[in-house]
Design goal:
By secondary structure, this protein is an alpha/beta fold. The protein has 15 helices and 9 strands. It has 3 domains: 105 residues, ATPase, nucleotide binding domain (Nucleotidyltransferase, domain 5, 2-Layer Sandwich), CATH 3.30.420.40; 89 residues; 115 residues, no CATH class.
């Protein structure tokens, strides 16, 4: 058997690799957790190491340059956390390319604890990030950021119009004047409605609301046009969403703008919760002892309606889609559920949940809606 002898160069290489790492190398490989309490003028930073010890604190201006300088001044594998708020989207895009991970946390899921100030909040955020005890808020998919902003603009203007219309009708209802329907919003009938108000101050108030509505209506058309122009750039996603019963162009564009990507939801139940379509149940005393054995009781959980923490615009989209499907392609299904004893509102909720589940599944797979496949699955 032939043996080989190591050369001197091999021995030298072995000796070098066995040397302990320098302080700089250890710092570069260390995980650090940065909590940021962000305000309009200043931001308080707190840095914890992997053991949970606070190794740095500071107060900086809430500006791009100062924030990036503070991040670059830290060695190691950096993880950053800050709360959801006005600055969240801007900060996420600013910091994400320079660190290992960024978490935007939901403040409603952080229980209050003891004293509170900016330094304590920053330290606590860093610690909760280190132990993985935070509920993140989704911030991503730069490719659909423009659709997201334009959908927010459209939804906001529609909300403003709705509030003005409600205020206008409340003036007439509060004086016993029937204003059902949409005739009260017609500019041609404005004078006839004003004559029914006897008080001059009340007429001035109603006149101001009509002026506001007249000013907003062109903005609604412009916002809708801008949204559709941007949404059509995502042709593949729009074709999938528009193929689903009850979802037209505008609903597809709003879903694309709000959701961004279907892959942020692992299951349909998570998507139902986000859309306000998840059924909330409560139960207690789930187990009982029978013949000396612990068994699960047959008590049915109590239904407590739908979840209250949800995206309101997305819920309106699926409720509207269910209404359209119930009087259109899924009319027979809707009528069959009502004939079997279900209330119309419950039947529409079932359709809305079905549409949401189909939307998530098809969008993830990149397939269009096929009625034959749905019947086969049923």
């Amino acid at each position: 058997m032939k043996t080989t002898r190591r050369s001197n160069s091999d021995k030298v290489m072995v000796r070098r690799s066995s040397k302990p790492k320098s302080l700089k190398e250890r710092q570069m490989n260390q995980h650090k957790y940065i909590g940021m309490d962000v305000h309009k003028a200043t931001t308080v930073n707190a840095v914890r190491d992997s053991k949970g010890e606070v190794i740095a604190e500071g107060i900086i201006q809430t500006k791009s340059a100062t924030i990036l300088d503070s991040i670059r001044g830290q060695r190691g594998i950096l993880h950053v956390v800050f709360e959801e708020g006005t600055h969240a989207a801007w900060l996420y895009d600013l910091i994400r390319p320079h660190v290992a991970s960024v978490v935007v946390c939901d403040t409603r899921k952080i229980p209050a604890q003891g004293n509170k100030n900016d330094r304590i909040d920053a330290k606590r955020l860093a610690e909760l990030l280190r132990i993985g005890a935070l509920m993140p808020v989704y911030h991503g998919e730069k490719s659909t950021r423009a659709v997201k902003e334009l959908s927010r603009s459209y939804i906001g203007i529609i909300g403003d119009c709705t509030r003005i219309k409600n205020r206008l009708k409340s003036i007439f209802r509060g004086r016993g004047i029937d204003c059902s329907g949409s005739a009260v919003y017609n500019p041609e009938e404005r004078k006839s409605w004003l004559r029914q108000l006897k008080d001059e101050a009340v007429r001035a108030r109603a006149d101001s609301l009509w002026d506001q509505l007249k000013f907003l209506e062109p903005l609604v058309e412009k916002a809708a046009k801008d949204l559709m122009v941007e949404a059509r750039k995502h042709r593949a996603d729009m074709k999938i969403l528009q193929s689903i019963p009850g979802i037209g162009q505008f609903r597809a564009a709003i879903i694309l703008g709000i959701v961004g990507t279907p892959h942020r939801f692992r299951t349909r139940k998570q998507f139902w919760t986000y859309s306000g379509l998840a059924v909330v149940t409560k139960t207690s005393a789930e187990y009982e002892v029978v013949n000396g054995r612990l068994v699960r009781s047959n008590k049915r959980p109590l239904v407590r309606g739908l979840n209250r923490n949800y995206n309101r615009a997305l819920k309106e989209v699926f409720k509207g889609a269910a209404q359209s499907a119930a009087s259109g392609p899924w009319k027979s299904r809707f009528e069959a559920m009502v004939a079997n004893g279900a209330k119309e509102s419950s039947a529409r909720l079932t359709l809305a949940r079905k549409i949401a589940a189909i939307t998530l599944a098809l969008w993830k797979r990149g397939e269009r809606y096929d009625e034959k496949k749905l019947k086969h699955a049923a």
